[in-house]
Amino acid sequence: MKPGFLFPFIILLVIACQSGKQRDNTREIDPKLVEEPLLHANRQAIKAEEEQIAGFISRYKWTMEETGTGLRYSIYHRGKGPMAETGKIAVLRYSVRLITGDEIYNSDRDGLKEFMIGRGGVESGLEEGILLLRVGDRAKFIIPSHLGFGLLGDQNKVPPKSTLIYDLELVSLH
Question: Are 142 and 57 a contacting pair, CB within 8 Å?
Answer without folding.
Answer: yes
